[in-house]
Amino acid sequence: MTKLLKIALAGALVLGVASTTASADVVKGQKIFIKKFKKGCGFNGAKFAAKHTQAEWEAIGAAGMKDKLMKECPSLDAGKIKDKWMQHIYDFSYEYANDSGNVPSC
């Protein structure tokens, strides 16, 4: 019985760690915005994220983030924006939306 319990707990731990590392990251999205988009947009990530509520960011979704970035920051080069960044930018924007009560440090 104890071996079965240990195996089950180990499996749950592995699944928990694996799902955490596979998901997008708010801090990574903030770093990407600072490094790649802040200069081209002319404003910081806090201002970008506060343009919408969390519900509005949900409607935009990760799939529409590239279009949203291009609309808000027309001077950005679309070819240099990587699709793999969009989930992180979405999570950052959702976390620091104007109705979230959170304020980023950028």
Which structural class should the secondary elements be placed in? mainly alpha
Major sheet details: none
In terms of quaternary structure, what is this?
single chain
Query: What are the low-pLDDT stretches, counting only 5+ consecutive residues below 50?
Result: none
Helix content: 55-70%
Order of helices and strands: HHHHHH
How many H/I helical runs? Answer: 6
Total number of beta strands: 0
Radius of gyration: 17 Å
State which percent range the strand residues make up. under 5%
- Which outline best applies? elongated
Distance N terminus to C terminus? 51 Å
The overall pLDDT average reads 85
Compact description:
By secondary structure, this protein is an all-alpha fold. The protein is 63% helix and 0% strand.
Characterise this structure.
It is a single chain. It is built from 6 helices and no strands. It is an all-alpha fold. The radius of gyration is 17 Å and the shape is elongated. It starts with a helix and ends in an 11-residue tail after the last helix. The mean pLDDT is 85.
Structure keywords:
mainly alpha, 106 residues, 63% helix, elongated, single chain, 6 helices
SSE topology sketch:
Blueprint: H1 2-22, H2 26-41, H3 45-49, H4 54-60, H5 65-72, H6 86-95
Helix pairs in contact: 2-6, 4-6
